[in-house]
Amino acid sequence: MEAYHVGKLFPIEQYCTGRELNVALPTDGLFNVLMSLKKISRKERKLFKNGKLTAYLFEKKDIPFLILDFGEGFSIDISIDISRFDDETRQAWIDSETNAVVIFLVEATTGILESIRLIGIGFADQLREICARQRGETRFEERVGLIHAAFTTKDMMHNAVAKTVFK
Questions:
Q1: Which helix (H) or strand (E) holds 140?
Q2: How many CB atoms lie within 10 A of CB 60?
């Protein structure tokens, strides 16, 4: 189990690449979100820590996307892929009742953890139902690319099948 400390290096080294990325990190119960961004502004840091946050669920072709909108044009989307889980892990994940998601904001150029936020998404069961249909899926990343080519993050928010608002 990793220990996360604001102001210290993000402990999962494989994600400390110097590149910007947004990725879902699977957990036993659901997943965490890593937002690794370059040159994080004060405004983005403030919106991340204290701003109104809306989480959206968008689904296309059995691929769920979690959209996190921190307001004022600061938003990300992440696809969720459990197709690589072995059967036992997959079933335990689908059967979990947790809705907790920890969001990590990391400065990509340094790998330093800038902030952490914990949310509970109200649509966790719906997200799991979509993921349960992924068994045996192939070419996941290619399919995600096609969806990203057709939908912007704003489009995904507008066409979301569920959302949870945090104040």
A1: helix 140-150
A2: 18
pLDDT of residue 136 exceeding 90:
no
Our CA angle for 41, 102, 88, nearest 5°, is: 140
Sheet holding 112-120, edge to edge: 21-26, 31-37, 100-107, 112-120
Give the model confidence (pLDDT) of 37-49 as tens digits: 999 999 999 999 9
Give dist(CA 31, CA 75) in Å, integer. 18
Query: DSSP of 82-123, one letter per residue?
Result: -TTS-HHHHHHHHH----EEEEEEEETTTTEEEEEEEEE-TT
Confidence at 3, pLDDT banded by 50, 70, 90: confident
Strand runs (DSSP E) across the chain, as ranges?
21-26, 31-37, 53-60, 63-69, 75-79, 100-107, 112-120, 162-166
